[in-house]
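We treat protein structure as text, and this decision shapes the records that our systems exchange. Below, we set out a record of this kind in full and without editing:

***
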Amino acid sequence: MGRHILSLLIAVLAVTLLPCGYTWREYRIRRSIDLSAANTLISDAKLPTDLMPVNYSLYLHPVLEQSSFTGRVNVTMLCTKRTNRITLHAHHDLQVDEVALEVVNTQDATQPLKIRRVDRVPKKPLLVIFLQADLTVGETYEARLQFAGNIWENTEGVFEGKYKQQADGAAAVTSDVALTVDAEEHSYIGTYCRPHHARRVFPCFDEPAYKVPFAVSIARPRTHHVLFNTELERTESLGPSSKIVIDVFKPTPPMSTFTFGFLLSDLQEVTATADAEDPDFRPKVRVWSRRDFQQSLTEVRKRVRLTLEKLQEYWGVELPLEKLDIVALPGFSYVKPADNWGLIVFKESELQQGYYSLAQELVYQWLGSWITPHWWSDAHVNKAIAGFLSADTAIKIDGGAEFEGKWPMTILYSIYYEFSKRYPHSRITAMKQETTCSKTELVLRMLNYTLGEETFRRGLQKFIRHREFKTFYGDDVWEALTKQAHLDQRLCESATVNDVVNSWITKDRIPMVKVERSYGGQRTATVTQRLYLRERPHDVPEQDKMLWWIPLVVVTQDRLDFSNTSATKWMKQVREVVLEDLPADDRFIIVNPEEIGPFPVNYDEQNWNLLASFLQTDEGRARIPVYTRAKLLHDAWNLAYAGDLSFGTAFNMTLFMKFERNHLVWNPVFTLIDHIGRHIDMSAVHKKFETYVRTLLTPLYEELVGSQQESEETWKANLRSLAKNFLCRAGYKPCIEEAQRAFKKWMDSPEPDLGNPVANQYICPVFKWGTREEWEFGLQRVINFPESRVKSERTYLLKTLAGCPSQPSKIDRLLNITVLEDNGNFTDNDVGLIFKMLSGGSSGYSTLFNFLKNNWDTIKLRFKDRESLWDNMINSATGLFTTQEGYDMVSQLYVQHQGEFGTAEHIIEKSLKNIKEETKWSDENLPVIEQWLDSFLASNSATSQKFFG
């Protein structure tokens, strides 16, 4: 019995002591965290390991006039296992000359080996050379290949682009404005080899782990120049009459194929400002652009150097680059810059922005090009570190002015919403990749806080040391951080950072922490963790088995110190722990201040109310930092929406907003108002909620209008715009009248179909609160829309025609024209868009439901061979109700037409199931919301005279 008690005591100590792991836990076998489902490239065709590349000798001849290129490559390989075949990556678009192909032993390069056959593997980008005899282990061989390929406009492999530039002597422009017809057209050719497009350029070992030197020469017209990964060594002439010369570049250091890159163009180097010149600074930074754009980039070199200095200081080591070319490429449309080793290609607009994007691409020179993930399963770690360090660098340089304080709150909120769904990502792989990277970035931020900034930085320096020009696994990062944390005594010897990280990034979920205080002088709190779910029903399989390593950073009212970010205690994948030595009952506590960890926190009602009262005081808003104020408000509303907190308590947390003017605290409020407003849209409570929103937003908006200045901060303009948008939807008279005045100019124009002089912000308020005549005018503009105009303008107009009106008569008119009359001016895509827009509010989907019910037979006949539209309509007409009344309506339709729904049978059945769940939510929460709103409105004068309706 005594032994059992002793064992239990040891177990309890192992769980609660800061911040140790289980003492009996054995270290795992070294591996990378398995994220196979998060990256499609993980399943890419891997090459056999019987041959290892040693180096490449590559010649390329891009031809601008023909949109094609030719080339030769000699691939030197070391034989590590006995084999009679050589397998290389070569895209099917790349034509390899099999007749000219040779393989030689480098010890006797004059005698080519006999080739049995050459195969291109169907559906895989592989070229296989079968030899008559086996290769000898330990000897090196050289495959000599000639190839040709096409140059594409899309950025995969070798791409081309064009831009126009005023002739010499013409006035310069400083942005992407339209040029005159007399402007000269210029062409360029570039490469985009990330992540696995080098195989489109030349046959190679196109995997990140193979890092070898390249010896490269590139042919070019005399009128152009070539930028490459390394400096130009010499230029070889083909004769005085030849228009072509060959640039030979210095050999590259060992690098992966995806960092290979060149740009053939006639762009010009931007002259640096005097304070950006420093001949001793390495790498030498050069900036290139079209001549017309150079004036906009005079500060870029200075900004690049400043960013490099900050990153070199962080990493504790300089990049081994002789030069770094930064290019502002006109007409470059790819979503991400091309960050080759020593050569980074940006869109023009990106180089006019702040430090974040610049820092991110420069981080990739260290982590990505110089030190490379061994395989794509670790690419998320690379990207997350780059994202974290880029934000950190931007904030250190200028306070992160470009974020307007929103980093990392915008990432956090999107993570919260996505991972609290029943089915995160809707099984969309690309979205899953992005959220996995974002969550890993947030976990790095959490570690930076809880391990301490110095420990975290020294850990990353330890990781990067001795890995120059090599590869890494994700575990290498966590191991280095663990060693440094142990050395600095920030982590117990038996715990590892891998344990912490593994619990977070292998789950497409996040936890919710509940803090239940024990009052009556006990000064303790029971802390529990469980899966966080907003979307109902909460029926995620195996949710009870999901546990995380969670750092509990605690701030108490009697010691409001937000600078200490060390964890008071860790929850080490246990369901429950106890916090001790808490303040008296009349003092609040805050867990996870400043969103240190990516998880919401719930409290008992008394602690929430203590927080709500404190925030209504000047002292409270001054002493609780903005991120924590935003977090408390965000957590309270979302937990209430999820059913984990009383809405009365959540609404109490909004009372301080009448004094709050910081945009970071207000930003989540608009989303929350929208979510709650949509949910209670059909109920009698909605009118009271709208009055509450008016009371909340009107003083904010009118104050922002009164203090408006030409040179004000961007966040003020954005906050004013958001407030105005919500007030307009709520019928704010000054807004509606302003919109109607603007709209009247369009109505009075002699040729209204030639263009729309009304700003988009005015259209929806007019269609919602304006006259039937104004709405009908908009409808005619859609019907008569000229083919010559931009189609997106018509799409926006159609969206607002359907989605903005609250009057059923307008919606019925639109449905009659597009569905019953089958007007030829509206395509099936238009009709589908209308259905989608009608699902945005109760007036829309309830009118659509009644239209369906009243015209069932006609609609069924219209959509007999248009199953997609039929399914779309049933979904939009039946899926959004949230009350018992709505359930009864949909249920009656289902019974009345059972067996007639065809392909939409499962859709209406799902709608009924969801409505039942939402009805339960409404029954539980609407009385609480109404009671709170009644009390609030009784003591707060509503400004109804300023609103329509």
The chain has a mean pLDDT of 90. Residues 58 and 73 are 4 Å apart (CA to CA). The first helix runs from residue 2 to 16.
